[in-house]
Amino acid sequence: MSRSIRLTAAGAAAAVLVALFGPSGVGAQDPVAPANSTTPVPILLYHHIAKAPKRSSSPTLYVPSALFKQQMAALARAGYEAVTMDTVWSAWTEGGELPDKPIVVSFDDGFTDQYTGALPVMKARGWPGVLNLIVKSPYAPKITTTQVNGMLKAGWELDAHTATHPDLSKITDPARLTREIVDARTALQTKYKVPVNFIAYPFGHVNQRVAQVVINDAGFTGGLTTVAGLATPGTDPARLPRVIVSPKTSGPALVAKLAKLNR
Known about the structure:
Elements: H1 9-21, E1 43-46, H2 65-77, E2 81-82, H3 85-93, E3 102-109, H4 112-125, E4 130-133, H5 145-153, E5 157-160, H6 174-192, E6 198-200, H7 208-217, E7 222-228, E8 240-244, H8 251-261
Helix pairs in contact: 2-4, 2-8, 6-7
């Protein structure tokens, strides 16, 4: 099956109408669920696509570009095809299509090496990535606006990673939660003119209060954690699991890991 087209603004509006009136308007019969509507999807988590600097305090966050290329090649040989979160959600809830073995390749924070190291590899395969971007990142080297726009032009999806990357579960001030979640989504939507339907939680931490702000106040479709596992239509959308990819994971090992999770 071919990969679904990403949701557009018009598609998002149509989704609202479907939720209110059904797929064909008032009085429409319940549709037959498509065969792939229950497909579990691995959501990979990457940070840096580069060799870790000497004396790095977080070497596990670095996957060298050559290894990343090997991992993507191994996934392709195993039959996987990258899609966006919007495409996954469309297939789960609106009858959209997924490949036989869909996978989401997500990147947190927004580093320049995601543009220089990941984009060319993904682009060569015609695969989109998902960039979870901090609005005002405290980390370097920061990705530029021009680079983000280049990713969007290549078919990538832009999602949020809060305004300044705090541990949301430790914030008790409602106004600050609003700034970090609601305002962050608005800022990215305004700047890049894209939907920004998902948020990746810093450090993967989320509690009930944060989940309510994410879904009810900000209007996000869902949130990404760092809990290991495959995302499914039955998963709490505010707590979608991901698969962290380390610099010690070879391409074949990554494929084997996903196969084990899918048993």
